[in-house]
Design goal:
This protein is mainly alpha-helical. The protein has a single domain (6-136), classed as Winged helix-like DNA-binding domain superfamily/Winged helix DNA-binding domain (Arc Repressor Mutant, subunit A, Orthogonal Bundle). 67% of the residues lie in helices and 9% in strands. It contains 6 helices and 3 strands. The chain has helices at 6-23, 30-42, 47-54, 58-70, 92-113, 118-136, and strands at residues 45-46, 74-78, 86-90. It has a 3-stranded antiparallel β-sheet with strand order 1-3-2. A hairpin with a 7-residue loop joins β2 and β3. It is globular, with a radius of gyration of 17 Å.
Length: 139
């Protein structure tokens, strides 16, 4: 039986990265773009929350965050309630980059959802969530 779903998901993820590259004037990588968009949507996040959201290896996530901090897009500060935990937040410059990226990703998502009914969009999300869970080893 040929693969019917995985190749499409893989190509879509790759093409989203290329899409980001076409408009990202600040040479934003796909990983950086998704973290910026996440911080724009969710606000300050702990490193553990980012790890859970993106499933990067911790060393990979640290490298991405290091580059973003060097560019002045994020700051990492000890959490006031737990000094062992660091909160990642957008800087003013990072918020500008994140807003541009978020607007483009929102436009792309709207253009896809525009052609779907609410029921189709719900099923699509459910299939993607199921794929994520299965790939993560959840039953």
């Amino acid at each position: 039986m040929p693969l019917e779903l995985i190749p499409h998901v893989h190509r879509a993820a790759h093409r989203i990265g290329l899409y980001i590259g076409r408009f990202a004037d600040a040479e934003v990588t796909q990983g950086e773009a998704h973290i910026l968009a996440h911080l724009r949507a969710e606000g300050d996040s702990t490193i553990a929350q980012l790890h859970k959201a993106f499933a990067h290896k911790r060393s990979t996530l640290t490298s991405i965050l290091d580059r973003m901090a060097e560019r002045g897009w994020i700051s990492r500060e000890a959490d006031s309630r737990d000094r062992r935990t660091f909160r990642v937040r957008l800087t003013r410059q990072g918020a500008k980059v994140a807003s541009r990226i978020y607007a483009h990703l929102e436009k792309l998502e709207r253009s896809v959802l525009r052609g779907l009914s609410e029921a189709e969009a719900r099923v699509f999300r459910e299939v993607l969530e199921r794929l994520e869970d299965k790939a993560e080893g959840k039953s």
